[in-house]
Specification:
Elements (H helix, E strand, L loop, with lengths): L2 H21 L3 H4 L6 H17 L4 H8 L3 H27 L9
Length: 104
């Protein structure tokens, strides 16, 4: 493994730690086979951020998460789709002049 890829994989673990904290889950859960929605969403976000940030292919990302490269590709696509939907909802709220804040 080249030094560059090793560095990126080490940095990937830092990203996973950050996302785990953001979502209120543990790193071990993100790296596990757990299929609870909150954990899956955190795992997919981590995959998407790592994909966007580093020059790692889906195979290398799959090795980090112990997943097949097609699972990585699906997870990345699913994450960005959720982001797109959330952004559209936010834009619609802003256009309608609704106040932003927590739901009651």
């Amino acid at each position: 493994m080249s030094t560059y890829k090793f560095y990126n994989e080490r940095r990937s673990i830092e990203i996973i730690r950050y996302i785990a904290e953001k979502h209120g889950v543990r790193v071990v859960e993100i790296l596990s086979q757990n299929k609870l929605r909150d954990i899956v969403f955190a795992r997919q976000e981590a995959m998407a951020v790592i994909d966007k940030r580093f020059s790692l292919g889906s195979i290398e990302i799959g090795r980090i998460f112990n997943r097949d490269h097609t699972t990585v590709l699906y997870g990345i696509k699913a994450h960005w789709k959720r982001e797109e939907v959330a952004n559209k909802l936010l834009i619609n709220k802003l256009k309608k002049g609704k106040k932003l804040g927590k739901k009651k």
